[in-house]
């Protein structure tokens, strides 16, 4: 007699999805398709000549790029040598003497002072632009008053050079007659064939 009641058997499953069932006997197992790797392209062979040209082009581009920034990275210029500072003590230690200008009757004293001052400044390697200022530091009393007067005169050519200082000093402290006598003496010595390199004689004759 057939059972008319509902069967309590429930087929196995997972929420309505059928599980993989083993293949029936006599049928081959399903094999997944093989995984084929993507083809690998061989590296392009660059001819040596083309590679060299490419390298040179890259270097040229790099150098051009760096040249744009070179002004920004230039090293600072080397420091300029500082001018030598000559002090009053250095002048005295090297033989410079003070000049007062109170021996107007003995112009040779003024010429001797000028010769000695020129020698000291040369030994100290003083620039021509600084020589007059340093020489004036040796003036005292009347000589210093004369220097202030002529230096502050608006008609005095500036800047001072040693040649201008020499001429102004000689004009003030060596009378014209004395200079003419020394010039004549120099000419006479030259005509006699006597060459005496006397600084003060040559100076007043120039």
Distance between the termini: 164 Å
Largest sheet: none
Instruction: Let me know the average pLDDT.
Output: 77
Q: How do the helices and strands follow one another from N- to C-terminus? A: HHHHHHHH
Global morphology = rod-shaped
- What is the overall number of helices? 8
Share of β-strand residues: under 5%
Counted beta strands: 0
Amount of helix: 40-55%
**What Rg, in angstroms, do the CA atoms define?**
54 Å
Structural class: mainly alpha
Low-confidence stretches: 1-7, 14-19
Q: Describe it for me?
A:
- 48% of the residues lie in helices and 0% in strands.
- With 206 residues, it is mainly alpha-helical.
- It has a domain at 88-174.
Summarize the structure.
The protein is built from 8 helices and no strands. The chain has 206 residues and is mainly alpha-helical.
Secondary structure topology:
Layout: H1 48-67, H2 88-93, H3 107-123, H4 128-136, H5 141-152, H6 162-173, H7 176-191, H8 199-205
Helix pairs in contact: 3-6, 7-8
Properties at a glance:
mainly alpha; 206 residues; single chain; disordered N terminus; Retrotrans_gag_dom
């Amino acid at each position: 007699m057939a059972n008319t009641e509902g069967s309590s058997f429930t087929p196995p499953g997972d929420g309505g999805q059928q599980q993989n069932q083993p293949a029936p006997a006599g049928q081959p197992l399903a094999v997944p398709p093989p995984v084929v790797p993507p083809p690998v392209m061989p590296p392009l062979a660059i001819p040596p000549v083309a590679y060299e040209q490419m390298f040179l082009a890259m270097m040229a581009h790099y150098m051009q790029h760096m040249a744009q920034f070179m002004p920004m990275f230039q090293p600072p210029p080397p420091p300029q040598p500082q001018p030598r500072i000559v002090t009053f003590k250095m002048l005295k230690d090297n033989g410079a003497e003070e000049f007062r200008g109170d021996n107007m009757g003995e112009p040779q004293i003024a010429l001797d002072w000028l010769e000695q001052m020129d020698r000291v400044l040369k030994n100290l390697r003083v620039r021509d632009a600084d020589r007059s200022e340093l020489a004036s530091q040796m003036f005292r009393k009347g000589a210093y008053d004369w220097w202030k007067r002529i230096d502050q005169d608006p008609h005095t050519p500036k800047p001072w050079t040693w040649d201008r200082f020499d001429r102004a000093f000689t004009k003030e402290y060596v009378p014209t007659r004395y200079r003419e006598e020394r010039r004549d003496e120099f000419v006479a010595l030259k005509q006699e064939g006597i060459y005496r390199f006397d600084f003060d004689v040559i100076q007043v004759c120039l």
